[in-house]
Amino acid sequence: MKLLHLDSSVLGPHSVSRQVSAAIVERLRQATPSLDIVYRDLTQSPLAHLSGSHLAAAQGAPAPAELGPDLAASKAALDEFLAADIVVIGAPMYNFTIPSQLKAWIDRILVAGKTFSYGANGPQGLAGGKRVIFAISRGGYYGAGSPAASLEHLESYLRGVFGFMGIHHPEFISADGIQVGPEHREKSLASALEAATTLHAA
């Protein structure tokens, strides 16, 4: 069984989402010692944002030689995702949505004919069957009914885009309110880490 672990926070060891995603992976590794784990740090080895040349190449246009490394990086990211049985993603909220590094990765895996297709009945996800677990962190509180609920474009976006690929039941472990104050951060992180260590492992 293969697990793909991704982190997208720019805060390194100070990152809450990184701590929680690592705890999730460790929980799964302990439950399945033979787990084949691939790790990708989207800040240390970022994928470039899409360019017009890249999109043209995806449509079948001749690719300039200098685009070769970028196309190879796209293929590697997509192949890693397709090969994974489990995907664990650390995703902090930056300015009400996902980090641009994570968006660049999603742009490389959201590929027609690979992870979704269009048919007579509309779009169909092709990447179902994977277990996807998100470790998300948010500086404030964005739950339903909260004053900032309309600004929540992290979890809602991730649910939408992965659902589009056929992954309709992603799991979320959340650490919220981490910028409200030290006590809120400590309590929220402890709660998220506990959820990670008691995660259903099968």
Automatic annotation (TrEMBL):
Domain of life: Bacteria
Pfam families named in the record: Flavodoxin_2
UniProt key word Aminoacyl-tRNA synthetase: no
InterPro entries per record: Flavodoxin_fold, Flavoprotein-like_sf, FMN-dep_NADH:Q_OxRdtase_AzoR1, NADH:quinone_OxRdtase_FMN_depd
EC numbers on record: 1.6.5.-, 1.7.1.17
Cofactor: FMN
Amino acids binding FMN: 9, 15-17, 93-96, 137-140
Role noted for this protein: Also exhibits azoreductase activity. Catalyzes the reductive cleavage of the azo bond in aromatic azo compounds to the corresponding amines. Quinone reductase that provides resistance to thiol-specific stress caused by electrophilic quinones.
This protein's name: FMN dependent NADH:quinone oxidoreductase
